[in-house]
Specification:
The complex is a heterodimer. By secondary structure, chain A is mostly helical. Chain A is built from 13 helices and 4 strands. In chain A, the strands form 2 sheets. Chain A has a two-stranded antiparallel sheet. A two-stranded antiparallel sheet of chain A has the order 3-4. In chain A, strand 3 and strand 4 form a beta hairpin. In chain A, helix 8 packs antiparallel against helix 9. In chain A, 42% of the residues are buried. Chain B is mainly alpha-helical. Chain B folds into 2 domains: 38 residues, no CATH class; 205 residues, Orthogonal Bundle (MetI-like fold). In chain B, 75% of the residues lie in helices and 0% in strands. Chain B is built from 11 helices and no strands. In chain B, helix 2 packs across helix 11, helix 7 runs antiparallel to helix 8 and helix 8 runs antiparallel to helix 11. The two termini of chain B are 40 Å apart. Classes of the chains: A mainly alpha, B mainly alpha. At the A-B interface, helix 1, helix 3, helix 4, helix 5 and helix 6 of A face helix 1, helix 3, helix 4, helix 5 and helix 6 of B.
Chain lengths: 306, 266
Amino acid sequence: MTDAAGTIEAEQNRNIRKRWLLSLPALLIILVAATGPLLIVLLYSFLAPGPYGDVQWAPSLEGWIGVFLEKDIFDETLSLASAHISIFMRSVGLSLVTTILTLLVGFPTAYFIATRPEKTRELWLFLITIPFWTNLLIRTFAILEVIRNEGLINGLLIKTGLIAKPIQMLFTDGAILTGMVYVYLPLMVLPLYASMEKLDFRLVEAGYDLYATPFRVLRKIIIPLVKPGIIAGSILVFIPALGAYVTPSILGGGKNMMLGNLIELQFGQGRNWPLGSALSITLMLIVMVALLVYVRNAGSQGSRHG
Amino acid sequence: MARAFSIRRQRGFTAIAVACFVALYLPIGVLVFYSFNAGESLASFDGISLRWFAKAFQNQQVIDASIRSLQIASVAAVVATIAATMAALATTRTEPYRGLTLKYAFINQPLMIPEIVTAVALLIFFARIKIWTGYSGLGYLIAAHTAFCIPFAYLPIRARLENMDLTLEKAAADLYATPWNAFRYVTLPLLWPGILAGFMLAFVISLDDVVITEFVKSAGQDTLPTYMLGQIRRSITPEMNAISTLFLLLSIGVVTVFFIVNRKRV
Protein backbone atom coordinates (compact mmCIF):
# COMPACT_ATOMS: atom_id res chain seq x y z
CA MET A 1 0.00 0.00 0.00
CA THR A 2 2.57 2.55 1.09
CA ASP A 3 4.71 1.58 -1.87
CA ALA A 4 1.88 2.21 -4.32
CA ALA A 5 1.09 5.51 -2.65
CA GLY A 6 4.78 6.38 -2.85
CA THR A 7 4.95 5.68 -6.59
CA ILE A 8 1.83 7.74 -7.25
CA GLU A 9 3.30 10.61 -5.29
CA ALA A 10 6.63 10.33 -7.12
CA GLU A 11 4.74 10.29 -10.41
CA GLN A 12 2.83 13.43 -9.39
CA ASN A 13 6.01 15.20 -8.37
CA ARG A 14 7.63 14.34 -11.67
CA ASN A 15 4.57 15.65 -13.46
CA ILE A 16 4.70 18.95 -11.58
CA ARG A 17 8.43 19.29 -12.22
CA LYS A 18 7.79 18.72 -15.94
CA ARG A 19 5.11 21.40 -15.88
CA TRP A 20 7.51 23.87 -14.27
CA LEU A 21 10.15 23.11 -16.91
CA LEU A 22 7.61 23.63 -19.67
CA SER A 23 6.53 27.00 -18.37
CA LEU A 24 10.08 28.14 -17.64
CA PRO A 25 10.84 29.88 -20.99
CA ALA A 26 7.71 32.04 -20.82
CA LEU A 27 8.28 32.90 -17.16
CA LEU A 28 11.96 33.75 -17.75
CA ILE A 29 11.27 36.00 -20.75
CA ILE A 30 8.60 37.91 -18.84
CA LEU A 31 10.84 38.14 -15.77
CA VAL A 32 13.76 39.56 -17.75
CA ALA A 33 11.96 41.80 -20.24
CA ALA A 34 8.82 42.90 -18.37
CA THR A 35 8.42 42.26 -14.64
CA GLY A 36 11.98 42.29 -13.32
CA PRO A 37 12.86 45.75 -14.59
CA LEU A 38 9.88 47.16 -12.63
CA LEU A 39 11.93 46.58 -9.48
CA ILE A 40 14.72 48.72 -10.95
CA VAL A 41 12.18 51.51 -11.45
CA LEU A 42 11.30 51.25 -7.76
CA LEU A 43 15.01 51.45 -6.87
CA TYR A 44 15.65 54.41 -9.19
CA SER A 45 12.79 56.37 -7.65
CA PHE A 46 14.84 56.51 -4.41
CA LEU A 47 18.09 57.74 -6.03
CA ALA A 48 19.32 61.25 -6.86
CA PRO A 49 19.00 62.52 -10.44
CA GLY A 50 22.15 62.67 -12.55
CA PRO A 51 23.06 65.92 -14.28
CA TYR A 52 22.40 64.63 -17.82
CA GLY A 53 19.68 62.12 -17.15
CA ASP A 54 20.24 58.72 -15.53
CA VAL A 55 20.89 58.68 -11.76
CA GLN A 56 23.61 59.17 -9.19
CA TRP A 57 24.11 56.28 -6.82
CA ALA A 58 23.06 58.21 -3.73
CA PRO A 59 19.83 57.64 -1.83
CA SER A 60 17.40 60.51 -2.16
CA LEU A 61 13.72 61.21 -1.70
CA GLU A 62 13.74 64.05 -4.21
CA GLY A 63 11.97 62.00 -6.85
CA TRP A 64 9.08 61.12 -4.56
CA ILE A 65 8.86 64.65 -3.12
CA GLY A 66 8.71 65.93 -6.70
CA VAL A 67 5.57 63.95 -7.45
CA PHE A 68 3.32 66.31 -5.50
CA LEU A 69 5.58 69.14 -4.28
CA GLU A 70 7.86 71.58 -6.01
CA LYS A 71 10.80 73.53 -4.67
CA ASP A 72 10.86 77.28 -5.12
CA ILE A 73 14.06 78.14 -7.00
CA PHE A 74 14.69 81.23 -4.87
CA ASP A 75 13.95 80.40 -1.25
CA GLU A 76 13.85 76.58 -1.52
CA THR A 77 10.46 76.35 0.18
CA LEU A 78 8.18 73.52 -0.83
CA SER A 79 4.74 74.08 -2.25
CA LEU A 80 2.18 71.87 -3.98
CA ALA A 81 3.15 71.11 -7.56
CA SER A 82 -0.06 72.40 -9.12
CA ALA A 83 0.99 71.39 -12.64
CA HIS A 84 1.46 67.76 -11.58
CA ILE A 85 -1.79 67.72 -9.62
CA SER A 86 -3.76 69.05 -12.57
CA ILE A 87 -2.18 66.34 -14.76
CA PHE A 88 -3.18 63.68 -12.22
CA MET A 89 -6.72 65.04 -12.10
CA ARG A 90 -6.94 65.20 -15.88
CA SER A 91 -5.66 61.62 -16.25
CA VAL A 92 -8.04 60.10 -13.71
CA GLY A 93 -10.96 62.30 -14.82
CA LEU A 94 -10.55 61.66 -18.55
CA SER A 95 -10.07 57.92 -17.97
CA LEU A 96 -13.23 57.70 -15.85
CA VAL A 97 -15.29 59.67 -18.38
CA THR A 98 -13.84 57.53 -21.20
CA THR A 99 -14.85 54.37 -19.32
CA ILE A 100 -18.39 55.67 -18.72
CA LEU A 101 -18.88 56.88 -22.31
CA THR A 102 -17.54 53.66 -23.85
CA LEU A 103 -19.89 51.74 -21.54
CA LEU A 104 -22.90 53.88 -22.52
CA VAL A 105 -22.18 53.37 -26.23
CA GLY A 106 -20.70 49.88 -25.98
CA PHE A 107 -23.51 48.30 -23.97
CA PRO A 108 -26.28 48.87 -26.56
CA THR A 109 -23.85 47.94 -29.33
CA ALA A 110 -22.88 44.65 -27.70
CA TYR A 111 -26.57 43.94 -26.99
CA PHE A 112 -27.40 44.69 -30.61
CA ILE A 113 -24.76 42.21 -31.82
CA ALA A 114 -25.80 39.55 -29.31
CA THR A 115 -29.45 39.74 -30.39
CA ARG A 116 -28.76 39.44 -34.13
CA PRO A 117 -29.65 36.14 -35.83
CA GLU A 118 -26.86 33.58 -35.74
CA LYS A 119 -25.89 34.19 -39.37
CA THR A 120 -25.36 37.96 -39.36
CA ARG A 121 -23.96 38.04 -35.83
CA GLU A 122 -20.51 36.98 -37.00
CA LEU A 123 -20.41 39.80 -39.51
CA TRP A 124 -21.21 42.44 -36.86
CA LEU A 125 -18.63 40.92 -34.54
CA PHE A 126 -16.10 41.01 -37.36
CA LEU A 127 -16.83 44.73 -37.85
CA ILE A 128 -16.00 45.39 -34.18
CA THR A 129 -12.89 43.21 -34.35
CA ILE A 130 -11.30 45.09 -37.25
CA PRO A 131 -10.82 48.37 -35.34
CA PHE A 132 -9.68 46.30 -32.34
CA TRP A 133 -6.81 44.88 -34.42
CA THR A 134 -6.01 48.11 -36.20
CA ASN A 135 -3.04 50.07 -34.97
CA LEU A 136 -4.02 52.50 -32.22
CA LEU A 137 -1.71 55.09 -33.75
CA ILE A 138 -3.56 54.92 -37.07
CA ARG A 139 -6.94 55.23 -35.33
CA THR A 140 -5.69 58.25 -33.38
CA PHE A 141 -4.35 59.70 -36.63
CA ALA A 142 -7.80 59.18 -38.20
CA ILE A 143 -9.39 61.28 -35.42
CA LEU A 144 -6.67 63.90 -35.94
CA GLU A 145 -7.60 64.09 -39.62
CA VAL A 146 -11.22 64.73 -38.72
CA ILE A 147 -10.79 67.39 -36.03
CA ARG A 148 -7.65 69.37 -36.87
CA ASN A 149 -7.88 72.92 -38.18
CA GLU A 150 -7.33 71.83 -41.80
CA GLY A 151 -9.35 68.68 -41.13
CA LEU A 152 -12.65 67.30 -42.33
CA ILE A 153 -15.06 69.07 -39.94
CA ASN A 154 -13.47 72.50 -40.20
CA GLY A 155 -13.01 72.09 -43.96
CA LEU A 156 -16.68 71.29 -44.46
CA LEU A 157 -17.86 74.08 -42.18
CA ILE A 158 -15.71 76.67 -43.94
CA LYS A 159 -16.71 75.45 -47.39
CA THR A 160 -20.39 75.71 -46.55
CA GLY A 161 -19.79 79.19 -45.19
CA LEU A 162 -21.00 78.42 -41.67
CA ILE A 163 -17.76 79.65 -40.14
CA ALA A 164 -14.99 81.89 -41.44
CA LYS A 165 -12.13 80.68 -39.26
CA PRO A 166 -11.52 77.08 -38.17
CA ILE A 167 -12.74 76.11 -34.70
CA GLN A 168 -9.83 75.01 -32.52
CA MET A 169 -10.72 71.44 -31.56
CA LEU A 170 -7.26 69.89 -31.58
CA PHE A 171 -5.05 70.21 -28.47
CA THR A 172 -7.97 70.30 -26.04
CA ASP A 173 -9.19 67.89 -23.37
CA GLY A 174 -12.22 67.27 -25.57
CA ALA A 175 -9.93 66.08 -28.36
CA ILE A 176 -8.18 63.63 -26.02
CA LEU A 177 -11.55 62.38 -24.76
CA THR A 178 -12.90 61.91 -28.30
CA GLY A 179 -9.76 60.03 -29.29
CA MET A 180 -9.75 57.79 -26.22
CA VAL A 181 -13.44 56.88 -26.53
CA TYR A 182 -12.82 56.10 -30.18
CA VAL A 183 -9.73 53.93 -29.72
CA TYR A 184 -10.90 52.07 -26.59
CA LEU A 185 -14.50 51.39 -27.64
CA PRO A 186 -13.79 47.91 -29.10
CA LEU A 187 -12.12 46.94 -25.80
CA MET A 188 -15.47 47.60 -24.07
CA VAL A 189 -17.72 45.97 -26.66
CA LEU A 190 -15.89 42.63 -26.94
CA PRO A 191 -16.07 41.51 -23.26
CA LEU A 192 -19.64 42.87 -23.00
CA TYR A 193 -20.60 40.80 -26.02
CA ALA A 194 -18.92 37.73 -24.56
CA SER A 195 -21.18 37.80 -21.50
CA MET A 196 -24.32 38.88 -23.39
CA GLU A 197 -23.91 35.98 -25.78
CA LYS A 198 -24.56 33.65 -22.84
CA LEU A 199 -27.61 35.62 -21.69
CA ASP A 200 -30.58 33.31 -21.08
CA PHE A 201 -33.54 35.08 -22.68
CA ARG A 202 -35.98 32.81 -20.86
CA LEU A 203 -35.25 34.95 -17.79
CA VAL A 204 -36.10 38.07 -19.78
CA GLU A 205 -39.31 36.43 -20.88
CA ALA A 206 -40.13 35.56 -17.27
CA GLY A 207 -39.66 39.23 -16.40
CA TYR A 208 -42.17 40.29 -19.04
CA ASP A 209 -44.61 37.61 -17.88
CA LEU A 210 -44.48 39.30 -14.48
CA TYR A 211 -45.46 42.61 -16.12
CA ALA A 212 -42.03 44.25 -15.99
CA THR A 213 -41.42 47.18 -18.35
CA PRO A 214 -38.53 46.88 -20.85
CA PHE A 215 -36.49 49.32 -18.76
CA ARG A 216 -37.12 47.32 -15.61
CA VAL A 217 -36.09 44.14 -17.41
CA LEU A 218 -32.89 45.86 -18.48
CA ARG A 219 -32.14 47.15 -15.00
CA LYS A 220 -33.20 44.16 -12.91
CA ILE A 221 -32.42 41.23 -15.19
CA ILE A 222 -30.05 41.99 -18.07
CA ILE A 223 -27.57 44.30 -16.32
CA PRO A 224 -27.09 42.05 -13.24
CA LEU A 225 -26.58 39.03 -15.51
CA VAL A 226 -23.94 40.65 -17.71
CA LYS A 227 -22.19 42.34 -14.79
CA PRO A 228 -18.95 40.32 -15.28
CA GLY A 229 -18.74 41.69 -18.82
CA ILE A 230 -19.33 45.25 -17.59
CA ILE A 231 -16.55 44.88 -15.05
CA ALA A 232 -14.12 43.25 -17.48
CA GLY A 233 -14.80 45.90 -20.13
CA SER A 234 -14.40 48.74 -17.65
CA ILE A 235 -11.03 47.41 -16.47
CA LEU A 236 -9.86 46.83 -20.04
CA VAL A 237 -10.69 50.46 -20.90
CA PHE A 238 -9.72 52.20 -17.67
CA ILE A 239 -6.20 50.77 -17.29
CA PRO A 240 -4.85 51.63 -20.75
CA ALA A 241 -6.70 54.98 -20.68
CA LEU A 242 -4.97 55.95 -17.44
CA GLY A 243 -1.55 55.13 -18.86
CA ALA A 244 -2.38 56.48 -22.33
CA TYR A 245 0.56 58.04 -24.12
CA VAL A 246 0.03 58.03 -27.88
CA THR A 247 -3.50 59.48 -27.97
CA PRO A 248 -2.92 62.43 -25.59
CA SER A 249 0.46 63.23 -27.14
CA ILE A 250 -1.06 63.51 -30.64
CA LEU A 251 -4.45 65.04 -29.77
CA GLY A 252 -3.60 66.91 -26.55
CA GLY A 253 -0.34 68.50 -27.61
CA GLY A 254 2.22 69.86 -25.15
CA LYS A 255 -0.21 71.69 -22.88
CA ASN A 256 -2.85 69.07 -22.19
CA MET A 257 -0.61 66.35 -20.85
CA MET A 258 -1.68 63.13 -19.21
CA LEU A 259 0.39 61.03 -16.81
CA GLY A 260 2.01 59.04 -19.61
CA ASN A 261 3.32 62.21 -21.23
CA LEU A 262 4.51 63.64 -17.91
CA ILE A 263 6.49 60.44 -17.30
CA GLU A 264 7.99 60.54 -20.79
CA LEU A 265 8.99 64.17 -20.27
CA GLN A 266 11.13 63.22 -17.23
CA PHE A 267 13.10 60.74 -19.34
CA GLY A 268 13.43 63.16 -22.25
CA GLN A 269 13.88 66.90 -21.88
CA GLY A 270 13.22 66.82 -18.12
CA ARG A 271 16.29 64.64 -17.40
CA ASN A 272 14.83 63.69 -14.06
CA TRP A 273 14.82 59.89 -14.02
CA PRO A 274 14.04 59.52 -10.28
CA LEU A 275 10.95 61.73 -10.63
CA GLY A 276 9.92 59.81 -13.75
CA SER A 277 10.38 56.54 -11.84
CA ALA A 278 8.36 57.79 -8.86
CA LEU A 279 5.58 58.93 -11.20
CA SER A 280 5.59 55.50 -12.90
CA ILE A 281 5.25 53.71 -9.58
CA THR A 282 2.44 56.10 -8.62
CA LEU A 283 0.61 55.31 -11.86
CA MET A 284 1.03 51.61 -11.18
CA LEU A 285 -0.34 52.02 -7.65
CA ILE A 286 -3.43 53.86 -8.94
CA VAL A 287 -4.02 51.02 -11.41
CA MET A 288 -3.65 48.42 -8.65
CA VAL A 289 -6.10 50.26 -6.38
CA ALA A 290 -8.58 50.48 -9.27
CA LEU A 291 -8.15 46.74 -9.91
CA LEU A 292 -8.69 45.90 -6.24
CA VAL A 293 -11.83 48.04 -6.04
CA TYR A 294 -13.24 46.34 -9.12
CA VAL A 295 -12.36 42.85 -7.93
CA ARG A 296 -13.92 43.52 -4.51
CA ASN A 297 -17.04 45.01 -6.05
CA ALA A 298 -17.34 42.08 -8.39
CA GLY A 299 -16.94 39.64 -5.50
CA SER A 300 -19.54 41.16 -3.18
CA GLN A 301 -22.04 41.75 -5.99
CA GLY A 302 -21.63 38.20 -7.18
CA SER A 303 -22.35 36.69 -3.78
CA ARG A 304 -25.40 38.89 -3.26
CA HIS A 305 -26.97 37.62 -6.42
CA GLY A 306 -26.08 34.20 -5.26
CA MET B 1 -48.57 48.76 -32.81
CA ALA B 2 -46.88 48.38 -36.15
CA ARG B 3 -44.07 46.22 -34.84
CA ALA B 4 -44.55 42.88 -33.17
CA PHE B 5 -43.45 42.83 -29.56
CA SER B 6 -40.06 41.19 -29.08
CA ILE B 7 -38.59 40.36 -25.71
CA ARG B 8 -35.14 41.09 -27.12
CA ARG B 9 -35.96 44.67 -28.07
CA GLN B 10 -34.67 47.54 -25.97
CA ARG B 11 -35.75 50.99 -27.07
CA GLY B 12 -33.00 53.03 -28.77
CA PHE B 13 -30.35 50.31 -28.60
CA THR B 14 -30.35 49.64 -32.34
CA ALA B 15 -30.00 53.36 -33.11
CA ILE B 16 -27.03 53.69 -30.74
CA ALA B 17 -25.42 50.56 -32.18
CA VAL B 18 -25.76 51.77 -35.76
CA ALA B 19 -24.39 55.18 -34.77
CA CYS B 20 -21.50 53.39 -33.05
CA PHE B 21 -20.59 51.43 -36.18
CA VAL B 22 -20.80 54.57 -38.32
CA ALA B 23 -18.61 56.49 -35.85
CA LEU B 24 -16.06 53.64 -35.80
CA TYR B 25 -15.68 53.51 -39.56
CA LEU B 26 -16.16 57.13 -40.61
CA PRO B 27 -12.74 58.44 -39.47
CA ILE B 28 -10.96 55.39 -40.93
CA GLY B 29 -12.89 55.93 -44.16
CA VAL B 30 -11.82 59.57 -44.31
CA LEU B 31 -8.22 58.55 -43.70
CA VAL B 32 -8.28 56.02 -46.55
CA PHE B 33 -10.17 58.35 -48.89
CA TYR B 34 -7.63 61.15 -48.55
CA SER B 35 -4.71 58.81 -49.21
CA PHE B 36 -5.89 58.90 -52.84
CA ASN B 37 -5.94 62.71 -52.90
CA ALA B 38 -4.03 64.24 -55.79
CA GLY B 39 -3.62 67.51 -53.87
CA GLU B 40 -1.38 68.36 -50.96
CA SER B 41 -3.88 69.24 -48.30
CA LEU B 42 -6.82 67.72 -46.52
CA ALA B 43 -8.90 70.83 -46.96
CA SER B 44 -9.71 69.95 -50.56
CA PHE B 45 -9.91 66.79 -52.59
CA ASP B 46 -8.30 67.42 -55.97
CA GLY B 47 -9.00 64.20 -57.80
CA ILE B 48 -7.85 60.62 -57.46
CA SER B 49 -4.17 59.79 -57.66
CA LEU B 50 -1.73 57.18 -56.43
CA ARG B 51 1.12 59.67 -56.10
CA TRP B 52 1.31 59.42 -52.29
CA PHE B 53 1.56 55.65 -52.45
CA ALA B 54 4.36 56.01 -54.97
CA LYS B 55 6.06 58.51 -52.71
CA ALA B 56 5.81 56.17 -49.72
CA PHE B 57 7.33 53.32 -51.72
CA GLN B 58 10.26 55.52 -52.70
CA ASN B 59 10.88 56.74 -49.17
CA GLN B 60 13.92 54.81 -47.92
CA GLN B 61 13.08 55.55 -44.27
CA VAL B 62 9.63 54.02 -44.69
CA ILE B 63 11.06 50.94 -46.36
CA ASP B 64 13.73 50.46 -43.69
CA ALA B 65 11.23 50.97 -40.87
CA SER B 66 8.77 48.51 -42.45
CA ILE B 67 11.43 45.84 -42.85
CA ARG B 68 12.56 46.36 -39.26
CA SER B 69 8.96 46.10 -38.02
CA LEU B 70 8.44 42.84 -39.89
CA GLN B 71 11.74 41.39 -38.64
CA ILE B 72 10.96 42.18 -35.03
CA ALA B 73 7.35 41.01 -35.27
CA SER B 74 8.28 37.70 -36.95
CA VAL B 75 10.97 36.73 -34.46
CA ALA B 76 9.04 37.98 -31.41
CA ALA B 77 5.80 36.26 -32.49
CA VAL B 78 7.50 32.91 -33.20
CA VAL B 79 9.40 32.85 -29.90
CA ALA B 80 6.39 34.12 -27.93
CA THR B 81 4.09 31.52 -29.50
CA ILE B 82 6.47 28.65 -28.71
CA ALA B 83 6.92 29.82 -25.12
CA ALA B 84 3.18 30.42 -24.74
CA THR B 85 2.30 26.98 -26.13
CA MET B 86 4.65 25.32 -23.65
CA ALA B 87 3.28 27.44 -20.82
CA ALA B 88 -0.31 26.66 -21.83
CA LEU B 89 0.45 22.92 -21.84
CA ALA B 90 1.92 23.33 -18.37
CA THR B 91 -0.98 25.27 -16.90
CA THR B 92 -4.06 23.51 -18.26
CA ARG B 93 -5.73 20.14 -17.85
CA THR B 94 -4.32 19.55 -14.39
CA GLU B 95 -5.33 19.43 -10.78
CA PRO B 96 -4.36 22.72 -9.15
CA TYR B 97 -0.77 22.47 -7.95
CA ARG B 98 1.35 24.79 -5.92
CA GLY B 99 2.48 27.81 -7.94
CA LEU B 100 -0.22 27.46 -10.61
CA THR B 101 -2.00 30.69 -9.66
CA LEU B 102 1.35 32.43 -9.49
CA LYS B 103 2.09 31.27 -13.03
CA TYR B 104 -1.23 32.63 -14.31
CA ALA B 105 -0.57 35.97 -12.65
CA PHE B 106 2.95 36.10 -13.99
CA ILE B 107 2.06 35.25 -17.57
CA ASN B 108 -0.78 37.79 -17.63
CA GLN B 109 1.23 40.42 -15.80
CA PRO B 110 2.20 42.44 -18.92
CA LEU B 111 -1.54 43.00 -19.49
CA MET B 112 -2.06 44.46 -16.02
CA ILE B 113 0.76 47.01 -15.96
CA PRO B 114 0.31 50.23 -17.97
CA GLU B 115 2.49 50.02 -21.06
CA ILE B 116 4.25 53.28 -20.30
CA VAL B 117 5.53 51.88 -16.97
CA THR B 118 6.98 48.79 -18.64
CA ALA B 119 8.49 51.06 -21.30
CA VAL B 120 10.23 53.18 -18.67
CA ALA B 121 11.45 50.10 -16.82
CA LEU B 122 12.94 48.62 -19.98
CA LEU B 123 14.54 51.95 -20.92
CA ILE B 124 16.38 52.03 -17.59
CA PHE B 125 17.29 48.34 -17.58
CA PHE B 126 18.48 48.15 -21.19
CA ALA B 127 20.42 51.42 -20.88
CA ARG B 128 22.51 49.72 -18.15
CA ILE B 129 23.02 46.58 -20.22
CA LYS B 130 24.01 48.64 -23.25
CA ILE B 131 26.74 50.28 -21.18
CA TRP B 132 27.96 46.96 -19.77
CA THR B 133 27.96 44.93 -22.96
CA GLY B 134 28.34 47.56 -25.67
CA TYR B 135 25.69 45.72 -27.70
CA SER B 136 22.99 47.98 -29.12
CA GLY B 137 21.34 45.87 -31.82
CA LEU B 138 17.73 44.84 -32.38
CA GLY B 139 17.98 42.23 -29.60
CA TYR B 140 16.52 44.57 -26.99
CA LEU B 141 13.45 45.36 -29.08
CA ILE B 142 12.96 41.68 -29.89
CA ALA B 143 13.22 40.68 -26.22
CA ALA B 144 10.76 43.38 -25.15
CA HIS B 145 8.28 42.52 -27.89
CA THR B 146 8.50 38.79 -27.12
CA ALA B 147 7.67 39.44 -23.46
CA PHE B 148 4.54 41.49 -24.05
CA CYS B 149 3.40 39.17 -26.86
CA ILE B 150 3.41 36.06 -24.63
CA PRO B 151 0.12 36.78 -22.79
CA PHE B 152 -1.64 37.52 -26.09
CA ALA B 153 -0.39 34.29 -27.68
CA TYR B 154 -1.21 32.38 -24.49
CA LEU B 155 -4.92 33.33 -24.40
CA PRO B 156 -6.24 31.50 -27.50
CA ILE B 157 -3.91 28.53 -27.00
CA ARG B 158 -5.08 28.04 -23.43
CA ALA B 159 -8.71 28.48 -24.46
CA ARG B 160 -8.31 25.77 -27.08
CA LEU B 161 -6.52 23.38 -24.69
CA GLU B 162 -9.22 23.75 -22.06
CA ASN B 163 -11.75 22.43 -24.55
CA MET B 164 -9.66 19.33 -25.26
CA ASP B 165 -9.83 16.48 -22.78
CA LEU B 166 -7.02 14.04 -22.16
CA THR B 167 -8.78 10.92 -23.51
CA LEU B 168 -7.10 10.98 -26.91
CA GLU B 169 -3.63 11.41 -25.41
CA LYS B 170 -4.39 8.59 -22.96
CA ALA B 171 -5.49 6.39 -25.85
CA ALA B 172 -2.23 7.16 -27.63
CA ALA B 173 -0.27 6.25 -24.50
CA ASP B 174 -2.25 2.99 -24.19
CA LEU B 175 -1.10 2.19 -27.72
CA TYR B 176 2.51 2.62 -26.59
CA ALA B 177 3.08 6.06 -28.13
CA THR B 178 6.00 7.84 -26.50
CA PRO B 179 5.04 11.15 -24.84
CA TRP B 180 6.70 13.00 -27.70
CA ASN B 181 4.86 11.02 -30.37
CA ALA B 182 1.55 11.48 -28.54
CA PHE B 183 2.21 15.20 -28.52
CA ARG B 184 3.39 15.29 -32.12
CA TYR B 185 0.59 13.22 -33.66
CA VAL B 186 -2.34 13.82 -31.31
CA THR B 187 -2.07 17.02 -29.26
CA LEU B 188 -0.35 19.26 -31.79
CA PRO B 189 -2.76 18.75 -34.72
CA LEU B 190 -5.74 19.35 -32.42
CA LEU B 191 -4.11 22.41 -30.85
CA TRP B 192 -2.95 23.86 -34.15
CA PRO B 193 -5.80 26.39 -34.73
CA GLY B 194 -5.19 27.81 -31.25
CA ILE B 195 -1.45 28.10 -31.89
CA LEU B 196 -2.07 29.80 -35.22
CA ALA B 197 -4.52 32.26 -33.64
CA GLY B 198 -2.03 32.96 -30.85
CA PHE B 199 0.74 33.54 -33.36
CA MET B 200 -1.32 35.99 -35.39
CA LEU B 201 -2.44 37.89 -32.32
CA ALA B 202 1.18 38.15 -31.16
CA PHE B 203 2.34 39.21 -34.63
CA VAL B 204 -0.20 42.03 -34.89
CA ILE B 205 0.40 43.21 -31.31
CA SER B 206 4.13 43.42 -32.00
CA LEU B 207 3.60 45.15 -35.35
CA ASP B 208 1.32 47.76 -33.74
CA ASP B 209 3.43 48.59 -30.72
CA VAL B 210 4.42 52.22 -30.31
CA VAL B 211 5.09 53.00 -26.66
CA ILE B 212 7.58 50.30 -25.63
CA THR B 213 9.41 50.53 -28.97
CA GLU B 214 9.64 54.31 -28.69
CA PHE B 215 11.41 54.00 -25.32
CA VAL B 216 13.60 50.96 -26.01
CA LYS B 217 14.87 51.69 -29.53
CA SER B 218 18.38 53.03 -30.07
CA ALA B 219 19.09 55.74 -32.64
CA GLY B 220 18.23 54.61 -36.17
CA GLN B 221 15.98 51.76 -35.01
CA ASP B 222 12.63 53.25 -35.96
CA THR B 223 9.85 50.77 -36.62
CA LEU B 224 7.01 51.80 -38.89
CA PRO B 225 4.75 52.96 -36.00
CA THR B 226 7.48 55.00 -34.28
CA TYR B 227 8.46 56.54 -37.63
CA MET B 228 4.82 57.47 -38.19
CA LEU B 229 4.49 58.94 -34.70
CA GLY B 230 7.51 61.17 -35.36
CA GLN B 231 6.09 62.30 -38.71
CA ILE B 232 2.59 62.98 -37.36
CA ARG B 233 4.07 65.19 -34.66
CA ARG B 234 6.02 67.22 -37.23
CA SER B 235 4.07 67.80 -40.41
CA ILE B 236 1.39 65.73 -42.03
CA THR B 237 1.22 65.04 -45.75
CA PRO B 238 -1.13 62.57 -47.46
CA GLU B 239 1.90 60.24 -47.56
CA MET B 240 1.01 59.37 -43.95
CA ASN B 241 -2.51 58.50 -45.12
CA ALA B 242 -1.09 56.24 -47.82
CA ILE B 243 1.15 54.41 -45.32
CA SER B 244 -1.79 54.10 -42.89
CA THR B 245 -3.98 52.66 -45.64
CA LEU B 246 -1.39 49.99 -46.44
CA PHE B 247 -0.95 49.19 -42.74
CA LEU B 248 -4.74 48.97 -42.40
CA LEU B 249 -4.93 46.50 -45.29
CA LEU B 250 -2.35 44.29 -43.59
CA SER B 251 -4.33 44.34 -40.31
CA ILE B 252 -7.60 43.54 -42.05
CA GLY B 253 -5.91 40.68 -43.87
CA VAL B 254 -4.64 39.16 -40.63
CA VAL B 255 -8.01 39.57 -38.83
CA THR B 256 -9.80 37.88 -41.69
CA VAL B 257 -7.48 34.88 -41.51
CA PHE B 258 -7.83 34.86 -37.70
CA PHE B 259 -11.62 34.84 -38.01
CA ILE B 260 -11.61 31.99 -40.49
CA VAL B 261 -9.21 29.92 -38.39
CA ASN B 262 -11.26 30.47 -35.23
CA ARG B 263 -14.50 29.65 -37.00
CA LYS B 264 -13.31 26.18 -37.95
CA ARG B 265 -13.23 25.36 -34.26
CA VAL B 266 -16.96 24.70 -34.26
